[in-house]
Structure formats: C-alpha cells, structure tokens
Amino acid sequence: MVDQIIIVGGGVFGLTSALELQQRGYSVTLLNPGPIPHPEAASTDISKVVRMDYGNDAFYMELMENCLERWRDWNDEFGETIFFETGVLFLSKNEMQPGDYEYESLALLDARGHPTERIRRAELAKRFPAWNAEVYFDGYFNPQGGWSPCGRVTALLAGRARKAGVQIVEGAIFSALRQVGGKVSGVKTKDGTEYEGEIVVMAAGSWTPALLPWLRDVMWPTAQAVFHFRPERAGDYRGNAFPVWTAELGRTGWYGFPAQPDGTLKIANHGPGWSLDPSGTRQVPEGEEARFRAFFAESIPGLASAAQIGARLCFYCDTFDTDFWIDHDPERPGLVVSSGGSGHAFKFTPMLGQITADVVEGRQNAYASRFAWREKGELRAEAARFVNK
C-alpha cells in the first residue's frame, strides 16, 4: 500500500491534490521552490475568472456546474468571500452566429437550463454604460460566474493543507527524480536532499516540461501579458454596471474584471502569447501597453487614459489540445503528472485535487479520461481554438 506521496509544486494543482490525498489517509510532503503563493506562479495575482461558458464543449460546462457549487460553499467554509459572483458579460461586435464562441456558449447554456440575458446594443448602453455600444452589437449576460482572488485562495489552501497535516517545504528546488529498480521512488532537490515516496505527483505548472523534458512535445510554457490600471472614477467600473467581462473572446481574447476596492482594475488578453522560459527574465514586450490602450479607446473609452500601475507576464503550461494533463506516466511507474492548465484551470480549483487523487488511486472518475495520457494528434473541435481557456 502507498503511504508516502511527494508533490512537486505549490500552485492550485499541487495544493488541492496534497489536501485531498492527506485527507484520504496518505502522508503527503509538498515541495515548492519558493514561498506559497510563489510570486512567479500563474495563480499568484489579484483575480481569475470563474465562468461556465465554454462554447459548445459540454464537458467543461458540466465540470464547472459542479465547481460553481463548491465555490459558493467555500465562501462559507473559509469564512470570507473568495468567489465574487458578479456574473459575466460576453460581448460581440457582430450579431452572434452559429460557430461563434459566444453563440455556441449561449446555446449550450440555454439547452442545459441556465438563466441568461441577451444583451443587444440598446441594452448595453443602458445597463453597462462604460462600454461603447456603437462597437458592440450583440452579446449576453450570464449571472452565474464571476471572479476569485487567486493569490488569496492559494494562501488559504496552503493553510488548510498544513492544518490537515501536509508537510510543506518551501525553498525546495527540484533537481531530479529518485528511481530505484526502474520505479520512481521520490525526488532529489538542488541542495542534495532526497525525499522518498512511493508516488511522486508533478504539479509544477509552466515549469513541468522543463522538469520532465520528455513532455516537451505535448506541453510548453506560454507567456501572456496582464496589466493593472487605476481609473480616476473607479466606482464607474464596479457593481452591476461593470461585472467580469469578455469582448470578442473567440476572436481577440480580451477579458477583464471589476475594479478592486483600492481602485485597481485588471485586464488581460488571452491570445497566442510568447514562447518563453518561465525561469528567465520576465519583461512584458514593448508595445503591449499601447495595444491595451488602443482596446480601451475603442471599447471602454473612459479607461483610455487610466494610470498603469502594474504589468506582469502570466505563464501558462499549454498542452497541445488545451486539456489538462492528469495521469500516471506509462513509462515511469510511480510518477503522476498533474499539470497542463493551459490558462483556464484555476476556475476548476475545487475539483482538481479530487480528480488527481482519484487518478493516483486508480479510482473511477467521470472527468479523468479527458485529461489522460495521450499522443499528440487531431484536436477536438473546441480545443483546436484558444478561446476555451
């Protein structure tokens, strides 16, 4: 019987897996190269979108239906609001048509019985006045969804894991897998320490393909720009008039959030990004701020001159088909990979640990097959587009 499990990585994949496995009776040690939350981790920021809208992909919508209930429960369990259910506004410059991300999302939401509101130009101008209604012709509002303070959630999960008995070692930099008799039996860290375990779960986010180089053909790090602004009239960008939003997500990748209590407003673009080393220099490419401001000028004119107060590169661990990667390594007994977030995993935080733990134990799980070990081949229709992130 497996007693000791080593987890490499203290983001949401690693922390939720550690917590779930510890609660199932295992002795779990989690290694992280720095503090938790790690300043360079994808989950370390002020906010992430929590939404169920996934085009025509019923798999992810169903998974999010379950996660949304858990997010709501977590508000009570943690004793503070970590899921702000503002709803999510989806906008399109043209009338939504079959095949469009927005159209297919709305159709699937309606088919599954979720309440939605169609937002045409006149309604946009009335209810969401910050937006340029001359530019956005169509869209819809989904009252289910919102955002979560991701860095805070990571810290809370680490605290809960410690309380449950997980041994968290910060500053432990992975060096190599420890192998005995052809089986993975732990890890070695850069300082020479060896940690023994019958199972090793690699949950290292964008660093995963560097630490497990045989995965570089199916997953890789991708950097995306994130900006923080502070508008003069922050109150105009909160409340019912300015929920979480996406604008032409299927074509352009723009999305953003309401202003924080201190006035900080986060906006990001989910696009092709840049192929960069997450351990290298993290400099936002020149010209990115101008691109963001051009979007403001066209779409949210009141933000065109807002002060820029922060910028960072958020590193995804992209898989070739944008599905997560949670499975045993078929050629390395004792190694489980739980990674491949592809820029859209955080919203599934409440269930990532359960899925990973079930995979570790070989239990049946309704969602694990989508994330199983696979060869690089033909993409699923929805996964072939970056918009499902």
Structure description:
The protein is 24% helix and 26% strand. It has 389 residues and is of the alpha/beta class. It has two domains: 4-43 and 151-218 and 320-388, FAD/NAD(P)-binding domain (3-Layer(bba) Sandwich); 71-146 and 220-318, D-Amino Acid Oxidase, Chain A, domain 2.
State the assembly state of the protein chains.
single chain
Question: Radius of gyration, Cα only, in angstroms?
Answer: 21 Å
Mean pLDDT: 95
Highest CATH level, the class of the largest domain: Alpha Beta
CATH architecture annotation of the largest domain: 3-Layer(bba) Sandwich
Low-confidence stretches: 380-389
| Biggest β-sheet strands, sense, barrel | 8 strands, mixed
Q: Any idea of the CATH topology of the largest domain? A: FAD/NAD(P)-binding domain
The order of strands across the largest sheet is 5-6-4-14-15-16-13-17
Describe the global form.
Answer: globular
The helix tally amounts to 8
Order of secondary-structure elements: EHEEHEHEHEEHEEEEEHEEEEHEEEH
Estimated structural class: alpha/beta
Please state roughly what percent of the residues sit in beta strands, choosing from under 5%, 5-15%, 15-25%, 25-35%, 35-45% or over 45%.
Answer: 25-35%
Helicity level: 10-25%
| Counted beta strands | 19
Number of domains: 2
- Distance from N terminus to C terminus (CA atoms, Å) equals 37 Å
List the helices and strands and how they pair.
Layout (H helix, E strand, L loop, with lengths): L3 E5 L3 H12 L3 E6 L15 E3 L7 H20 L10 E5 L8 H11 L5 E2 L2 H7 L10 E5 L3 E3 L1 H15 L2 E4 L3 E7 L2 E7 L4 E3 L2 E4 L5 H4 L7 E12 L13 E4 L6 E3 L8 E5 L18 H12 L7 E13 L5 E4 L6 E5 L9 H13 L28
Helix pairs in contact: 1-5, 1-8
